[in-house]
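User: Predict the complex.
Assistant: Input components as received:
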Amino acid sequence: MTTRRNFLKKTGILSAITLVGIPKISNAISIENNFAAVKKPVVLSTWAHGLAANEGAWKILSANGKALDAVEKGVMVTEADITNLSVGLSALPDRDGIVTLDASIMDEQGRCGGVACLERIKHPIAVARLVMDKTPHVLLVGEGAQKFALDNGFKLEPKTLSPEAEKNYKEWLKKSEYKPKINIENHDTIGMIAIDANGDLSGSCTTSGLAYKMHGRVGDSPIIGAGMYVDNEVGAACATGLGETVLRICGSFLVVELMRQGYSPEAACKKAVERLVKKNPDYKNAQVGFLALNKKGEHGAYALQKGFNYAIADNSGNKLIDAASYLK
Ligand code: SD4
């Protein structure tokens, strides 16, 4: 067998290296070239509300800021949008008429934080960030998460539903039927992933979860590896749609691991959707979309059903792209 050392010996390269030492200059050039090939900064986020969120993130990324700050501030735009029925406190409530929020964040060092079933706090993503920055934990839920937020200066917002959410909830109460609709008002989580000028990746995800869910239900969004995942050596991914189906396959982690195996971001998302189809016999009644970004700044997405779109912002602008889907 020709070992690398034998090969170098045979070709005389080894003695040349021994004589002149490791060729540092050409090595440095190739690293520099790889670095230059990375497309950055880039920020991606789910659905059309991602356009405004990307604007928020871009302010930070275009000023050489960190991806972590960009993905936090970016999705805060959506959380504060009082017309949004699926993110933040203006969103549709659970079956008991209570808005409960889920969020998660992860940075390039693999640090992460999340909150689940959080009530009456305007910016769950900022609380998730504080869980990451200030506690030895990854996930705080319910009353404990709210107490942590209040202890850290967050304000308790009123219990009342937004006028639009209240109208929808009253209508829903007439039948009280628990049937998540595909792609419409109860499937619009914002997930955001970004690579900064330094080449570092981060991700965030924030949602009110499924409309009219059971009180206490937690979806994929605050669960690291399900709703969002980042590995700075490989890439980042996030998910939107019926969280139960994503939880069953650790969806975002799976997408990142598939990119590690060499799949492009879109191919990785497609494979993950195919896995989800296999593991969820009732898949035709759900919608799921995955969004991915690799270390080179390449991106891709794939959904279960038609209708999933995402926003991408880079040096050339901010635009909406329709994702391909498993069901045509
Ligand atoms: C959940 N994945 O709680 C969230 C809902 C969602 O787009 O993504 N909507 O299951």
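The chain has a mean pLDDT of 89.
Let me know if you want any component modeled separately.
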